[in-house]
Specification:
- There is one protein chain.
- This protein has 16 helices and ten strands.
- The protein is an alpha/beta fold.
- It folds into three domains: 125 residues, no CATH class; 126 residues, NAD(P)-binding Rossmann-like Domain (Rossmann fold); 184 residues, no CATH class.
- The protein has a six-stranded mixed beta sheet with strand order 2-1-3-4-6-5, with helices on both faces. Strands 7-8 form a two-stranded antiparallel ribbon. A two-stranded parallel ribbon has the order 9-10.
- Strand 9, helix 13 and strand 10 form a beta-alpha-beta unit.
- Helix 1 packs antiparallel against helix 4, helix 8 packs across helix 12 and helix 9 packs antiparallel against helix 11.
- The radius of gyration is 28 Å and the shape is flat.
Length: 504
């Protein structure tokens, strides 16, 4: 097992306290790992969710703008003719709403500005109209008879009305924010955290009222504010439920931000919108647009932390892909499975399937299935031995199955059952989960999503005796940037790697 000792936690971020001696992986016997080394991620039951009133109002404003623009264009071009309020609106409207949604134009932001959104609104209106005209021609439909002048008037009127509607809504939203600010927690009681808290208290247009700091070891600063330090990361869930917190703002600046990252992930699991104010001012060059997720608090660059992968719209499609691919794969590969079973029976005797306890979603333990490539001497060896790739007891059949990854085909049944997914972090045995969770702060965060047959770490060569810290980093990167297309890419790269197996 490769453990990078240089990657063991040394210094902590603003939410972590001093490290006690004797708590590291190398300070205690292998079998004495504390059972709370890897906490089971909590579900978001009973969490506070922000009200979507502004988002719904923005959708209504765009619908009204497009319908009104169709009527205006029809009346101006042909005043004597019959009023045609539609003018292709039924074809354009769903495309426009979809483009605006995916572009983040219905997302509530800290700084509300119509001028910031105007270029994105104009570009999506043009694209939606062009797509509607193209699709209408391809599908044999009839687009309303109108020339370039009428289309230009339609787009111009739609953009003008949409901008005016958003300006009114943003004015009302700022007034509501000032009168009814939402409670917010500031992670980190350092100099940057105090400046951000002061900005929130002085500028009510952001609609945030700081209730306190979370910092396990707050520094002593002159001119301290009256905001209390409510504790470290362990107090996050308690304070979120106590104050009904909807926003959490993390202020960076520590040498090791692992604790801060873990707190942000916990905040998103609790239903809060999490933000990060980076210590490096160069982040201020990030364009402040709905698409990039960039924003600012009175000049401080502010980055939005994305929603948890399991709350994103495409997650249902991921499970659908898992069920379909696993069922079809088991049917099509039935002859291969039968041949592998016969070969294993001939090589190792009765018991062709190897059953082993693995840790999956939310820290739950399940039974993983594989074709047996080696018969361990006892259950302890099965649960605690790291790698058997070079074991002299493995026969020719076992080596072939491991080299070709055919020994993992029975895991399609685990995917069908819902224990696993096609793509996700590698499932590990509980013994190693406890050990790695002590040594690597981000390891426990891998269990936010179902484990997988393959994953981002595996396709980047992190299999067998490779750095556990690197694996955890890749797994968390996969979770935080998850998309259905990323799963497809990983599956394609996995298929390509299987054509050139390396035996790991």
């Amino acid at each position: 097992m490769t453990i990078d000792h240089d990657s063991l936690p040394r210094s902590a971020g603003p939410l972590s306290g001093p490290r006690r001696p004797g708590t590291g992986l190398l300070d205690r016997p292998a079998g004495a790992a504390h059972h709370r080394a890897v906490p089971t991620p909590r579900r978001s039951r009973g969490t506070v969710r922000p009200r979507p009133a502004l988002s719904l109002a923005l959708v209504q404003a765009d619908v009204i703008a497009l319908c009104s623009a169709g009527g205006i264009a029809g009346r101006v071009i042909d005043p004597a003719g019959p009023l045609d309020p539609l003018l292709g609106v039924p074809a354009v409207l769903p495309l426009l709403l979809l483009l605006n949604l995916t572009g983040g134009l219905y997302r509530s932001r800290l700084t509300l500005s119509v001028l910031d959104e105007l270029p994105a609104l104009a570009a999506r209106a043009v694209i939606a109209t062009a797509l509607a005209v193209t699709l209408s021609g391809c599908l044999g439909g009839r687009w309303p008879d109108c020339g370039p002048a009428r289309l230009t008037l339609l787009l111009g009127a739609q953009l003008l009305i949409a901008a005016a509607g958003r300006a009114v809504l943003y004015h009302l939203a700022r007034r509501i924010r000032r009168s009814r600010p939402s409670p917010v927690l500031v992670l980190g009681a350092g100099r940057l955290g105090h400046r951000v808290a002061a900005v929130l208290r002085e500028h009510g247009e952001y609609g945030m009222r700081p209730v306190g700091f979370l910092d396990a070891a707050p520094p002593l600063l002159p001119g301290d504010t009256d905001l209390p330090v409510l504790g470290g990361r362990e107090a996050l869930e308690r304070e979120v439920r106590r104050h009904g917190v909807q926003h959490v703002i993390a202020t960076a600046g520590g040498a090791d931000e692992a604790e801060t990252a873990a707190a942000l992930r916990e905040a998103t699991r609790l239903g809060c919108q999490a933000w990060l104010v980076p210590a490096l001012r160069e982040y201020g060059s990030l364009p402040v647009t709905p698409v990039t997720g960039g924003d600012h608090l009175w000049g401080f660059p502010c980055l939005r932390v994305g929603r948890p992968a399991r709350r994103r719209p495409g997650w249902i499609a991921k499970r659908t892909l898992d069920l379909t691919a696993a069922a079809v794969g088991l049917l099509l590969l039935a002859p291969v499975l039968a041949l592998c079973a016969l070969a294993v029976r001939f090589d190792t005797g009765p018991g062709v399937l190897f059953r082993q306890q693995r840790t999956g979603l939310d820290g739950r333990v399940f039974t993983l299935l594989k074709f047996r490539t080696l018969r361990p001497s006892n259950e302890h060896e099965s649960a605690t031995r790291w790698n058997i790739a070079q074991d002299h007891r493995m026969g020719a059949v076992g080596r072939l199955l491991r080299k070709s990854s055919l020994d993992e085909l029975p895991q399609l049944w685990n995917v069908l059952r819902g224990d696993m997914s096609l793509v996700g972090p590698r499932p590990e045995r509980p013994y190693f989960v406890m050990r790695f969770g002590q040594a690597y702060p981000e390891y426990a965060d891998r269990h936010r999503v179902p484990v997988g047959l393959t994953g981002l770490a595996q396709v980047n060569g992190l299999r067998g005796d490779t750095s556990i810290e690197d694996r955890a980093r890749f797994d968390n990167r996969y979770i935080e940037s998850w998309s259905l297309w990323q799963d497809v890419k990983i599956l394609c790269r996995t298929a390509a790697l299987m054509l050139h197996p390396d035996g790991s």
